[in-house]
Every structure is written in C-alpha cells, then in structure tokens.
Amino acid sequence: MIIEFFKSLSGTYTIIIAVWSCLLILFCIVYKIRRERIYLFWAACVGIMLGLTSTAFYINWNILHGIESLKNQEYKKAVKHLGRLELFSRYSSYINRIPGFNVPKKVTITGSLGTSYYHLSDYNKAIYYLSESLLAEPDEFLHRVHLAHSYFYSDETQKAYKEYEYVTSHQYERKDFVYFFNLGKSYGNLKLYEKAANAFIKALELLPNRKGLHIYIAGCYSMQNKKAKALEHMQLLEIKNAEFIEKITKDRFFEIIKNNAEFKEMLTQISVN
C-alpha cells in the first residue's frame, strides 16, 4: 500500500515531502540538543500542517487539471492527473472528514479513468475501471455503453452482447445526442439495424451539423435492403471524399456493414463523385 502511494506522487510532491522530512529532522535535532518538549511539540505541529496543506494542494490541483483535461478531450492528461487520485479516492470518506479536503468518490475517479482509457483505445484498462465504476452506479449510461463497446472492440462478443442488451432494455433519463448515438451503435452491434437507424436519426435531429451520421444511417438501411433510403442519406453528406468516408467507416460498427455489396457500391460512387 505504501509503495502504491509513493508511485502515485508527482516529482513536485515528492520534493515537498522531502522538505517536510528535513524540517522534522531539524526540529528533532534542536529538541535533542535543548532537551525541551516544547520543540518536539512545535515540530509535530509544523510537520502536520505542512503535510496536510501540501496534500490538499496536490489533490485539488490534480482534480482541477483532470476535469479540465476531460472537458478538452485530452485523455492522456486526464489519465495522468486522475490516476494520481485513485488511491486517495479509495479512502475519500475518511479523508474528507479533515477540513479543506474534498476528494472525489472512488466511483467518480474509476468512471472517469475508464472513459479516458476507452477513448485512448486501451480497452483492457477501460474494462477494468468501468466495471469497478458500475459496481457502485450500475445505471450510469455512458459507463455502461463504453464498457459494452470495450468488450466488443476486444472481441469479447458474448460479454459485449450482454452489456448491449442491458443498455437497450434499460430506461435512462438522458435523451441527448450522446445517448441516441451510442444507443444506435448498441442496436447496430446487436444487428438490430431498424432500431439502430431510428436512434441515429434522433441523434441527427438533435445535432443536424453531424453530417457523418448519414453514413451510419445509410449503413443500417443497406443491411435492411432498403437501397433507396440508404442512397438518400448518402447523398445528404456535405463532405463527399474518400478520406472523410474512410475516417467514419473505421469505426468497428461498420465491420459487417462494409461487406454489404450495396453499401460498398454506394461508398465507391460517393468517393468518386
């Protein structure tokens, strides 16, 4: 446990601890020379105050930068800062009893780390942290769907299907773009393409500027042999070049869809035009 703690510390914080230790040693030397208990008392007070202050600063600094990194989608930085808080978060209920401390709960840190690792395509770590988070909050939609995607991208299809079935059968309060987009991917990965298309259409209604969604919808219609509707959505793409289409279809959602003859033909026509 002690080794884990020191591994989580940054270089700056290690220096602070070193300075604190030197001050304690200095005060103890003075105490030994003077043989007066008052020096030991003040040494302890200064050491404790310095330790608590520097620890509180360290925690708050990493919380601030971790949250900022997540908002800016800088997931490597988010992992760096939030990873330092993981050990503290395990004991947040005790640490937060000390004035000046506000350590996030373990579920907050593990969920944020899981989401970050998912976006970094480190699916093994994403699965670990998201599973931990869902033990405490099983109905957190984004963590559940990211766990399902992580299993799917790791070729653990049975576990992925189990999570997708939970996502698609559960009622969630959030009804934003992220919800409908991920719901569409969940239905699609379960090969329920009609429901997937409907979810993507709802996502597009919320954010009409996300034109890349037309490819997802066209793919779903192609798998239902609805060529006219598929072609209609492909024609609605504003950016019609091979590079843009390749970027979108790299999503493993299209792994099966890209083998559909009609869909491949439409992609070729759009790219050429």
Notes on the protein architecture:
It contains 15 helices and no strands. The chain is an all-alpha fold and 273 residues long. It has a domain at 174-273: Tetratricopeptide repeat domain (Serine Threonine Protein Phosphatase 5, Tetratricopeptide repeat), CATH 1.25.40.10. Helix 3 (37-71) crosses helix 4 (75-90) and helix 9 crosses helix 10. It is elongated and about 90 Å long.
Gross geometry: elongated
Provide the succession of SSEs.
HHHHHHHHHHHHHHH
CATH class of the domain at 174-273: Mainly Alpha
Q: Span between N and C termini?
A: 61 Å
| CATH level-four homologous superfamily name of the domain at 174-273 | Tetratricopeptide repeat domain
Assigned CATH architecture of the domain at 174-273: Alpha Horseshoe
Strand content: under 5%
Number of strands: 0
The residue-averaged pLDDT reads 81
**pLDDT below 50 for ≥5 consecutive residues: which ranges?**
1-11
Report the biggest beta sheet as strand number plus sense, adding barrel if it closes: none
- Kindly name the structural category: mainly alpha
- Residues in helices, as a percent range: over 70%
User: What is the CATH topology assignment of the domain at 174-273?
Assistant: Serine Threonine Protein Phosphatase 5, Tetratricopeptide repeat
Cα radius of gyration in angstroms: 26 Å
**Total number of helices:** 15
